[in-house]
Structures are given as structure tokens and as C-alpha cells.
Model the fold of this input.
Amino acid sequence: MSEYTFLKGSKDWWRQAVVYQIYPRSFADHNGDGIGDLKGIIEKVDYLASLSIDAIWLSPFYPSELADGGYDVADYRDVDPRIGTLVEFDELVEKLHSKGIRVFVDIVPNHSSDQHVWFQEALRSPKGSKERARYIFRDGRGDNGELPPSELSSHFGPEGWTRVPDGQWYMHLFTKEQPDFDWSNREVHDEFLKTLKFWSDRGVDGFRIDVAHALVKQLEPLPTRSSYSLEVMKDDGTDQLFDRDEVHEIYREWRELFNQYDPPRVAVAEAWVHPHRRPAYATNDGLGQAFNFDLLTSAWESAAFQKVIDDNLAFADQTGSSTTWVMSNHDVIRHATRLVIPAGKEGVTFDAENHWYVNHRLDGDLDLAKGLARAKAATLLMLALPGSSYLYQGEELGLPDVTDIPSEQMQDPQWFRGEGKFKSRDGCRVPLPWSASGSSFGFGPGGSHLPQPKWYSRYAVEVQDGTPGSTLELYRSALALRRKLISGEKLSWLPSATGTLWFEREGGWSSITNFTDQEMELPPGELLIASEYISAGKLPANSTVWLKLS
Ligand code: NOJ
Ligand code: CA
Done:
């Protein structure tokens, strides 16, 4: 039994887990209303098991008005009736567990939906009431309070304050339908402990914590800000809005709760902070792990990848945690597209004004064949790294982003509020193609809440399932092999040609990636798996190969 198989059953199961992100509305639709649902996921549990993943992470499935794709939660302890019921949730968890797949759910603690009962109570209650004190209500400036309490913009633009009928204003870092909680209020702490206990008691194994660095804010004087860029975010724990040192007190409280379970519940922080501040979110008396998004913002270059890998392994060492790797998620352009966006039109950069992902509008043709080759190479490299890997639904099909959704069918507030500056995130949220034909390409018996392009049929699960050389079969083989190969958590670099990266893992296996557009020499060794067809000792352009070293 390898050390890894042993870890699976232990409290350390998460250290090198592969977690597959499901965006529930776009995964599989059982009842044909065009919206993915829990029954749809239940029907695909065998498919998930066929991927040899260790866990799934469910993006929000809670009741929501969908002002921000479900990240506006109206009730943290229920399922949106369009998506399912708590009974179905329990069934899903049980089915997944029976296949050895663990479950993460998304916790959104910075803000609720404006439809949340607390916010509705706050609206009905007077200024200064305990109902308003759960959020951040303030009087406006100007003679009649007609000016916002401070000059604050929101991530999705424009204003970070919205006025209510009695004249007060409330703060929201995201859309106006996402009022921020006031975490200096003990009631807010207790409410989230209740929510974490609720899902832990239902058998949930882990939590993904949304905007984990924003909860604690310094509100005296009120923050003013027109940019959320890392360049203006202080990196010493004293920024007014983000990454304040006190935020970790919250997570220490959560950890006490997590440790009451066997195995302890785990968590991963979504925290866009200065890299050297990331380890603080990954301590074992805090959340335990933090997302590292550096590969998302990295150019397809060996030196850039090597630096990201070295830096993040060093950060993980600081706390004894393991790092996380992400190539795609529901917020960014899928990596099969992103990796061929020409320089200067990068898919994911920070916008200095808005501190949000800038998905540049793509004009002109992209070389999607090269994009797929790079995506497969990047994934194989990622899966060979120590730490846990997060996959996003559909990447196992090699899906490119959908870049031509008509404006009137877009759903993403980033599109509507961004005044045309940002590409919408809907392109990576289009429902999956399960079959080559039929209504919504097998997504469900009805339509699809976002339009699917005709070319989706080529990428369908049905087409790739059992087909040698398909992206799906590559993912399946790589994930199954990873389970057998992984033992320790060390990586040692091996010397290799410029434009390539070669590293060894314990147990005498290695991964080599060619980042260039030219074929290179393949070092000697037994071929374990390759992202492209290999012939005559050559390492193809834009490819990764795992080799057993002799
Ligand atoms: C990060 C989530 O990933 C994103 O989808 C969402 O818009 C923001 N947090 C706000 O909750
Ligand atoms: Ca449905």
C-alpha cells in the first residue's frame, strides 16, 4: 500500500487530494428546466468516480437570487429549490462517500444576499437597531445624507455603498445585492459557526472560504477606495479592508469546531493577498490551506512556472501545510483558451482600478489546437506537483471558453456593471456537453441556461469516453496513475534544456514539460504517460511526459 493510499483514510487525506469543482447550475440538469441540479450530479457520481478524484467542491447551491451566480446567499443552511432539497444533498454525499469521494462546500462569509432574512429584517428595522448592526449601515454625507458615507467603489463597480429608503447606506464590496456583514458583531460569528456545524454534521468534509481575507474591516474612519489592486493593498496586516491580522482570530475559532470532528473538517481559503501573507491562512490552527492562484496568472514559460512552484512549496513549508494548484475555475477563462491568448491580451490580470480578473475581450482567431496541447501539458505538470490540485468541471474535456455569448444572454454582474470593460465570466460557466447531439448536448432533457455553441458536440463526454488519445482519457489515466505514484511531498529539479522543466518526485518518477513550440529531446526513462503522442525519443512541443527514472 503506497503512503498516499494510506493518507486517504487518515486525517491528512487533503494534503495531496485532487478536488474537482462543480458549478452546480452548469453540471447536469435532471428535470430539464435548463438549470443543473443535485439529482443531475447524483446521476453522474459514477462518472466522477471514473476520474479518480479525491473530492468534489460544490460552488454555492444555496437559495439565491443569482445576482452573482449564487455567491449571493439567501439562506446558508438550505438548498435552492431550483437545485434540489436537503434530502437530495444527503443522498449525494452518501453516494459520493460510498465511492471514496469527499465533499467540500462553499462558504460565503463576507456578504449575504440582500434577500437573506437578516438583511430583510435590517431593512425593516430602524437606524441603530441590532438588526442593522449585523451589516454595515451608516449615515450619508452632505446636508441631507445624500452622499455616500465614503468614497468607496465596489469590485463590480460603481458604488460600494447603496442607499435604503430611510436614507441610510449599507456597504458592499461586491454587487449591491451582496451586503457585507459586520464581523465585529458576535452574532455574525455565531451564525457562521452554526452553518459550519450544520454542514459538518451532514457529513461535509471540507469548506472553500470565499474572499477569506475581507471579513474584518477597520471602519473608523470609513474606508475610501477606488482600487482593490494588490498594489494598493497594504501587506502588513493593517489595510482597512483586506487581510487584516485580526481575521485569523475568526479562523482559529472555526478550527476549534473543525477539530471536533473525526476526521477533522478541512478548509481552503480564497484569499487574494500578497503572496508572503498567504501562509497565515494555511496554519494548522487556522483554515489549514490557502489557494495559490499563481499558475492562473503565469505566462506559459518555463522560468515563470519554476518560480511559482519554488515560491509556493516554500510558503507551504513555512506552515507545514501543503500547497494548492489551480489552472481553471468559475471566475477565469478556461486554460485551454487562456494559454494561447496573445501577450498583451492576457486572459487573467488584475485591473488596477477594480482589482478583479480582467478577461480581455478576445478578438481575432486563437490557435485552439495549441491551446489544448498547452492545457493538457499544464495539467499533467500540475498533477505531478506536490500538494493538492483543483480541477474545474469540463477541463477534463479540454473545453475552450465560450467567447461569443450574446450580451443579452450574459448573466455575470461583472459584465453588466463593468461598463463593457470586462469580459463576462459566463464563458467558463456554460453547461457541460455530455452527448454529441440532443437537447442541450445531454446536459438535460430541456435547454441550457447559457447558450451552448455548436462546436460543443466535438468535446462531449460521449465522444471522448473510451476514445484513446482523448483529453478525458488522458485525465483519467493521469489521475489513476498519480494515485499509484505519489508517496512523499518532495520535489527535486533535474537539469534540462532551456524552455523545459524537469523534476523528480520520491519513488523515482519524474515529469518533464516542454514549454516551447519546438520538439525537444526526451531524456531516457520508462514512459509512464504523455500529454501528446510520443515517437522516437522526442518530447513534442507544448507537452508533458512522466518518466520512471532508471
Ligand atoms: C469569489 C468567487 O469565486 C466569485 O465568483 C464571486 O463573484 C466573489 N468571490 C464574490 O463572492
Ligand atoms: Ca434542473
Observations:
- The radius of gyration is 23 Å.
- Residues 302-319 form the longest helix (18 residues).
